[in-house]
Specification:
mainly alpha; two-stranded antiparallel ribbon
Length: about 1200
């Protein structure tokens, strides 16, 4: 019995915290069987604490655990002495876990007592690191919980400041893990100030002052010693200073950061340390700099508070710490500090930081010279990339006009960047290319004229045959295209697609780069440059086609395709849309869509992007967008572009409609998307006129299709009839039609869903779905709900299978907007939804499930169901209240169906609904439902049983235990009736259900209701689990060669071992049957899989002649084994009266030297080789035979072989005894 303290002060914990605590304790309870003593001790102590709490009828809350564990600590400590370190380590570890979930009131009220219990663990010299780390975790938790007033006490009093002093002392401990844990605790504590107006922890200044004082004193003592005295004391002092610098890093990493007023004295101290000759001290100081500037770089408030002049001094001092270029230790760290320091400097004073970039670029460039260590070169390139990204402000670049100082700074930066392309830096050119990419992205619009020379240089290098950095060079050219635009880049680097030479190299590689990187370009450049180029290449292609030049035809066709693939990128927010997108260019695009089928998709994509990009840009908030994009194109410009496009929208719609009508089904979707984009900007009057024209074409087409005797064949590669095309266009126009045309849509809907054409029906139902997606359309459907319901109900019998998915989708949309006064529509369409769960098409089944759920939601919302309005129902039937229980009653009526198909569909629907509404159903409804489905398990119809098994799976996994457990006595035997089936699918389902039952209710509850004849299934499941556990353990621990060899000798594969690796044939019957279907499927599905083939060798060493007709007899698909004639050997053994075997050595020796016996053996062997067909006969006799249902069965030769092996072992054993 563990003594407990008074638990009256325990506060209740939040449920979420309790769950988190419980999950942590569950992991600790698993260690009860651990082989490690310290893990097992944790579980034992936790179990003892919980048993004691339960005996005292105390709730297992975090507070109860805390008080119970505190009562254990006096047994481990006697005053300040450590009496039982193992008990102390386990108790404090558990205390660290539960304190994190205890209430703040308990941590504040018990602070003194908890601290008194932890003091021996924190101060005793013999305390293990594990004990100290756990105690530090406890100390961190109770210090975070303290309020602001408690931090006002001095460090001499027994309060939080005194505990913090001990925490800071342990932050300098010699033990690495203890020191690290204490420093983490300091960071976490300072990141969580007490509740109140202050945003900075009250102990932050105390920590800063203390650590600054200590590091100054220690470094002063370190430098004050003479070299002779320092030699003996240097290691301890240097180590102490490094620990202090690590503590400074921990303090600087807190959420509040290092105090602004203390940055300057800290930097002075770090600078003095950085100038020393000790390498480790310098690295530690630079690490502190890095942490300090990293925090400042991401905190805007810190930047605003910092004095620019003071920070300039810090920057100068850091630059004075420049190391030697070949120093692989200090140089990368210094470069990282420079990048972070200037990022913070740019936030404080961006103009001064930008002005210092030229000199800084020149300084850092020296670290990129050839011959320097790769780490230094990489760090220098990353530093320059960071400087270009963070220290070139867009605000300065967007000033119009640019100031002289800005131009001078940019000129000097570009000069330094271009110098990096000289031979001096050739070894670092790949890194230099990354720097140029960053500069192009940073300068963007201002890159011209400063980086133009870089484009020419990179282009010249890129066309060289011996150049290796082509991928990196392509990255620079891509950045140049984004910044300068395609017009400028092609002016510097012409394509030269025809007649390339040494002076005019071909640059076809630019076309893919242009396609991927053009943005906000001028559309006029494509019209004036690319289209003429494409036309010229097309003429050349015609000439090559006439001359039948195959290679040239392929090359020029590819070039034309790549040129036109640029059009969508030119149409992405072009800066000159209104000036360039003229009537002439529109006619050109229309001709392309009509005449050039191979370019039709590209043209549609370009038109779609042209509309959508301007529409999105005009609607979204552009404040967070790229400032350079806002400078090129304003929101008002995008709106004017849309107005300009709307003037041409009706003409483009006519073109797209005609192209759509001439295109096969497979290639229609991208045209339809383009039509939708243009419909969104088309004026209302034009939409009405277009709709009326389409309707005028639709009606004759429907009449002609109805009059036709044979339906028009449809498919992906055929052009649909006009009726299908017009309906597709009407469906696309529905969201944009005015309210006045909805009556015409209703007429079209009613006529199409009555059609015998499945595709017409499908498109008719889509009209309703499209209407329901808009607010105006939903209002119209609600107003005309009566006629809509009648149309849907009357057309149910005429629905064709291909249109059922579209009909169910439309019913979903109708049910979502169904008024509470029209709930009678739900029982009218309920049978259709239930039957839909058995559809072959997956999307149709999903729609049926969704419809069932939507109807359940509508019924759960309340209302009244007029049963008299339901078709085929009594007109005098009373109304019923809508509820989820009533809905289940309606669905359950299908269980009385006349066909197994209807019954199984109803069970499937109930399974889905039970999963959805299990938490709101009444208990009696669920109980009756479970009992009913339990009876269906005894059905003889497999379709019904299959659905019932699915319901049982949902029931077992989702329903509460108290509802399922009473049914186990009948449920389990009914399930097991189907485990004896020959079909593996039911046996496997039953086995999986039994496994779930075992996990849910335990082995005792299931074994109690398990029939005695089926107990072997439980044994099989247990063995399967153990086998899987062993296999998992073997996989984790690794198999040695001997184990693998042993398994290979016994089984030919791991699959056979998993099936037959059991000591009981009866127990493994379920495993064999479960995998029997799998093996048959593998045999049927993998018919082309290679089968191992063996050659039967005789005693002669002559090679097998494959041309011999008798060679077939010596080729076998089974591995041959040497047979042993046990009868002849056993006949040679003499037996005594007592049954002992006697072996005559003389007779054996005579046999060994008898030439006659040797001759007989040779003759027998020759006879066997002379008649190799015997081997084929043996293989047939010992091979598999066809049994019931045409299944292969292998003869059980294994046991006879084992008996023979035992006999042989006994013979050999007796023979050895005789020789001895």
């Amino acid at each position: 019995m563990i003594p407990l303290l008074d638990a009256t002060q325990m506060a209740p914990e939040v449920a979420e915290e309790q769950f988190t605590l419980e999950s942590k304790l569950d992991r600790l309870r698993l260690h009860k069987t651990s082989k490690l003593p310290h893990q097992k001790r944790l579980a034992v102590i936790l179990e003892a604490v919980e048993e004691t709490l339960k005996e005292q009828n105390t709730e297992l809350t975090a507070s109860a655990y805390v008080i119970a564990l505190l009562s254990i600590l006096p047994e481990a400590f006697t005053g300040s002495e450590l009496k039982n370190q193992e008990l102390a380590a386990a108790a404090v570890y558990l205390l660290d876990v539960v304190l994190q979930h205890a209430s703040s009131a308990l941590l504040i009220g018990k602070f003194t007592s908890i601290l008194s219990y932890l003091t021996p663990a924190l101060s005793h010299s013999d305390a293990s690191p594990a004990l100290v780390r756990s105690a530090l975790g406890c100390l961190e938790t109770i210090l975070i919980a303290q309020v602001s007033s408690s931090w006002l006490a001095s460090a001499s009093e027994n309060g939080p400041r005194k505990a913090l002093s001990r925490l800071l002392e342990l932050s300098l401990d010699e033990r690495p893990k203890v020191r690290k844990r204490a420093q983490e605790a300091v960071t976490t504590l300072l990141s969580h100030p007490p509740p109140g107006p202050a945003t900075v922890h009250p102990a932050l200044n105390m920590c800063v002052d203390l650590v600054l004082t200590l590091v100054k004193e220690q470094y002063s003592e370190f430098t004050g010693k003479s070299h002779h005295h320092r030699h003996g004391h240097a290691a301890a002092l240097e180590r102490k200073i490094i620990f202090l610098l690590q503590l400074i890093r921990a303090i600087a990493r807190n959420d509040m950061g290092w105090p602004i007023s203390k940055i300057e004295p800290l930097c002075e101290t770090l600078f003095s340390i950085s100038r020393s000759a000790e390498e480790f001290l310098i690295m530690a100081a630079l690490d502190v700099f890095q942490s300090l500037f990293t925090k400042m770089g991401g905190d805007s408030e810190e930047k605003e508070k910092m004095d620019g002049a003071a920070f300039t001094k810090i920057v100068d001092s850091i630059m004075n710490l420049q190391p030697v270029q070949t120093d692989q230790q200090r140089a990368p760290t210094w470069l990282a500090i420079v990048a972070q320091c200037f990022a913070a400097y740019s936030g404080i004073d961006e103009a001064k930081a930008f002005a210092r970039l030229p000199k800084l670029f020149e300084t850092i460039s020296d670290f990129l010279e050839s011959g320097l260590p790769p780490t230094v070169v990489t760090s220098a390139s990353q530093c320059l990339i960071a400087l270009a990204t963070t220290c070139i402000p867009c605000k300065i670049l967007l000033e119009k006009p640019l100031t002289k100082s800005t131009k001078r700074t940019l000129s000097e930066i570009s000069k330094s960047a271009l110098s990096l392309l000289s031979v001096k830096y050739q070894a670092a050119w790949k890194e230099v290319f990354g720097i140029l990419v960053a500069l192009f992205d940073a300068l963007d619009l201002v890159a011209d004229p400063y980086l133009v020379a870089a484009v020419a240089t990179i282009g010249e290098l890129r066309t060289g045959e011996q150049f290796e950095g082509r991928a990196e060079a392509d990255g620079v050219l891509s950045a140049a295209i984004r910044a300068l635009g395609p017009e400028k880049v092609l002016e510097i680097l012409p394509l030269n697609l025809e007649n390339p030479g040494p002076k005019q190299p071909g640059r076809a590689f630019l076309l893919p780069l242009l396609r991927d990187n053009i943005r906000n370009a001028k559309l006029s450049h494509f019209i004036d440059y690319m289209i003429p180029l494409g036309d010229h290449l097309s003429q050349k292609l015609v000439e090559f086609t006439e001359d039948e030049k195959t290679v040239e035809i392929k090359i020029y066709a590819t070039l034309i395709e790549q040129i036109w693939s640029l059009l969508p990128r030119y149409c992405d927010l072009p800066s000159d849309l209104r000036q360039s997108f003229t009537q002439k260019f529109a006619e050109l695009l229309a001709n392309v869509l009509y005449q050039k089928v191979e370019l039709r998709q590209v043209g549609c994509k370009a038109l779609r992007i042209l509309v959508d990009s301007n529409k999105v840009y005009a609607e979204v908030d552009i404040d967070g967008l790229n400032p350079f994009l806002k400078a090129k194109l304003s929101k008002e410009d995008a709106k004017k572009n849309l107005e300009h496009l709307s003037t041409m929208a009706s003409k483009f719609l006519a073109v797209l409609f005609n192209v759509f009508n001439q295109t096969t089904t497979e290639h229609r979707q991208y045209i339809l998307d383009t039509i939708n984009s243009f419909l969104s900007v088309t004026p209302a009057e034009d939409i009405v006129n277009t709709f009326q024209k389409v309707v005028g074409l639709l009606n004759p087409a429907l009449e002609a299709a109805a009059a036709a005797k044979n339906s028009t064949p449809s498919g992906k590669f055929t052009i649909p009839p006009v009726s299908h095309t017009m309906l597709d266009l009407i469906v696309a126009m529905v969201p944009y039609l005015p309210r006045s045309l909805y009556s015409d849509l209703s007429m079209i809907f009613v006529s199409t869903i009555q059609s015998a054409d499945a595709q017409v029906q499908k498109r008719g139902y889509r009209i309703v779905s499209k209407l329901a997606q808009s607010e105006v359309g939903s209002e119209y459907l609600i107003e005309s709900m009566d006629s809509l319901e009648n149309a849907m109900v009357s057309s149910a019998e005429k629905i064709t299978p291909p249109a059922r998915g579209a009909r169910l989708t439309s019913l979903i949309d109708i049910v979502r907007i169904l008024p509470s006064s029209d709930l009678h529509f739900i029982p009218a369409i309920l049978p259709e939804a239930v039957i839909g769960t058995k559809e072959v098409n997956e999307k149709t089944r999903e729609a049926a499930y969704q419809l069932l759920v939507e109807m359940g939601n509508k019924m759960a919302g309340g209302g009244s169901v007029s049963i008299c309005k339901v078709p085929s129902m009594d007109m005098d039937a009373a109304d019923v209240e809508a509820s989820i229980n009533e809905y289940f009653t309606m669905v359950s009526a299908g269980l009385a169906g006349s066909t197994p198909h209807m019954i199984s569909a109803t069970i499937t629907a109930l399974s889905r609904l039970l999963y959805q509404y299990k938490n709101i159903l009444e208990v009696n409804i669920v109980s009756e439902l479970v009992a009913t489905i339990d009876l269906f398990l005894t059905s003889k119809n497999r379709e019904i049983v299959k659905a019932a098994l699915g319901f049982v799976k949902v029931m077992v996994t989702t329903l509460p235990k108290n509802l399922v457990e009473p049914r186990l006595e009948t449920l389990v035997p009914n399930l097991l009736e189907w485990s004896h089936e020959h079909h593996a699918r039911f046996k496997l389902k039953v086995k999986h259900l039994v496994e779930r039952l075992l996990r849910r209710f335990g082995i005792e509850a299931i074994e109690r209701v398990f029939p005695e004849d089926d107990k072997k299934l439980l044994t099989n499941i247990r063995k399967s689990k153990e086998r899987a556990r062993r296999k998992k353990g073997t996989a984790e621990g690794g198999d040695n060669d001997e184990d693998r060899t042993a398994r290979k000798k016994k089984y030919s594969s791991e699959f056979e071992e998993a099936i037959y690796g059991s000591s009981s044939e009866d127990d493994d019957k379920y495993v064999e049957s479960d995998n029997e279907a799998t093996k048959n499927k593998r045999k049927q599905g993998n018919g082309s899989e290679k089968q191992e083939t063996y050659i039967i060798h005789g005693k002669s060493e002559d090679p097998l002649d494959l041309l011999d007709k008798k060679a077939l007899a010596r080729i076998s698909s089974t591995k041959p084994t040497a047979s042993v004639n046990m009868t002849s050997r056993q006949s040679k053994i003499k037996m005594t009266a007592s049954g002992k075997m006697l072996v005559d050595d003389e007779e054996a020796g005579k046999k060994a030297t008898d030439p006659d016996s040797e001759m007989l053996e040779q003759l027998a062997a020759q006879a066997a080789e002379a008649n190799p067909i015997n081997a084929y006969v043996d293989a047939v006799k010992n091979g598999p035979v066809r049994g019931q249902r045409n299944k292969l069965k292998f003869k059980n030769k294994r046991r006879r072989d084992e008996d023979s092996d035992e006999d042989m072992k006994e013979v050999r054993k007796t023979h050895r005894r005789a020789k001895f």
